[in-house]
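Notes from the 1:1 (GR / supervisor)

We went over the backlog. Supervisor wanted to see one worked example end to end before approving the batch request, so GR pasted a single chain during the call. The sequence is below; no edits were made to it. Supervisor asked that the structure be written out right there so they could see what the output format looks like.
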Amino acid sequence: MNTFVFDIETIPDVQAGRRINDLPPELSDKAVADVMFHKRREQTGGSDFLNHHLHRVAAISVALRTPTSFKVWSLGTVESDEADILARFFGGIDKYTPTLVTWNGSGFDLPVLHYRSLVHGINCAKYWDVGNDDRDFKWNNYISRYHWRHTDLMDVLAGFSPRANAPLDEVATLLGFPGKMGMSGAKVWDQFQEGNLEGIRNYCETDVLNTYLVYLRFQLVRGVLTQAGYQVELDLVRTSLQAESKPHLDEFLQHWKQS
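Structure output shown during the call:
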């Protein structure tokens, strides 16, 4: 079985903001986003976190564990457009038929990807299959909240009770993993405007690594991994990151060693 852990980073869909709010085309992206944030604060009484359909994907990072390897990376390049990134994501599902693992994927990441695949007309038949084409998907598919083919760790660990939800950063830190290392999702729009897409992708990869490490601990307590098997998986992550020799992954390893 292949395991496909992923996380997305998003920015305001300013094109949608212009259309929906009937804003003039000469208005800057920043000004359009400010209008969107203002309207959202009026709706919520304080929070400017936009509705799912008003997000645009800036990055998708993944960790893929196959029976023979482990790798973490961000889909496409800094020059890739959103449609290309989405096509790569859903193409990976078609290719590997993996177990998807997320933190709050049911509540945020996947709904955003649903809307964005509609915008771009991205084919994702395997993802949407609930047993019509593959009978195995009837009782274990990506859509059902209670199936394992998509495991939303936050949802599962909270017993499917929103009142018990916890942030990834705190859970990862609780377990001795690095957690956040400087950036956060709240800073992504500012970083994007500054042209730091590479930094956003690197941050997203560290979130994916934290999620995967929490998932390994979950597999241990579920009995899927033995203590020895769990240690083998941790060692594989360490050696794989060391082999990459990338500054943000080296920093992740350093924080992990210190924890």
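Supervisor's comment: The chain has one domain: 3-258.
Batch request approved.
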